[in-house]
Amino acid sequence: MFTASLLTAAVLAQTPTLVPPPAAPTAMRPPAPRWRGTGLIITSSLFGAVGLGLNVARVAVGSRLCNDLRYDESAGSIVGFGDCMNAGLTLGGLATGALVGNSLAFGLSAGAGVVHGRYAAHRARFAGGRLPRARLQVGLGAGMLSAGLAGYLAVRLASWFDLLGQQTCSQRHPLDDFADPTTRAELPAFSRCMSGRIGGYLSGILVTQAISAVGIGLLTHGAAYRRDRRLLDYIARGGLRLQPSLGREYVGLTLGGRF
Predict the structure, then answer these.
(1) What is the pTM of this model?
(2) In a domain, 244, yes or no
(3) Per residue in 80-115, pLDDT tens?
(4) Dihedral over Cα of 169, 57, 90, 147: its sign
(5) Looking at the domain assignment, is residue 23 inside a domain?
(6) Residue 222 lies in a domain
């Protein structure tokens, strides 16, 4: 009896412990993104509105900059020069504020596009959400961004080479010799020409900055949606799977896929 018991114990010791078979692999369904990008969209819109408003104010001030310059024959001096300097200082302050507002709007618009594009991809794949036209968004956004940046650079270079209109207006209304009454009479026309050129350059900056901010948002949204949608489609088709793994000394999950 004792020998039989030892034999039975030896057989049991050599028999491997039976492990339940692993469950069938199941396709992964990632959780919905926590953030929708709503806050970024609102914040970028606010900064964009601030930048746009300041740029509109720049155009208004620039269009009247030094517009009242004239030569006072009785006093023998230029009238309105002080008001011209004050308007120039105001224009500089507006330019700084507009640059900050538009730069923040540009960066936040790009971030909002990425975050909301990821959310839209998950919603469209797993929650029956609307299917955005990602290709159209990418194409339109890339076109607007390219046009905006190229236009902004062109306006900046043109204003720099033209000295904000001084080169053009000096050719149209020469002010070389103030001893000549005819030259002095050209001063009001020269000042109006300068204000018109400055207003035109600032209008170009306004339009190109606004186009660039909208374009980067559309581009990043379409690109993020298309990238994440492809990944989620791959996961949903079973390209990536989670499989429980059970052993004598461990329990875990195995991530597998076809690459």
Answers:
(1) 0.77
(2) yes
(3) 888 888 999 999 999 999 999 999 999 999 999 999
(4) negative
(5) no
(6) yes
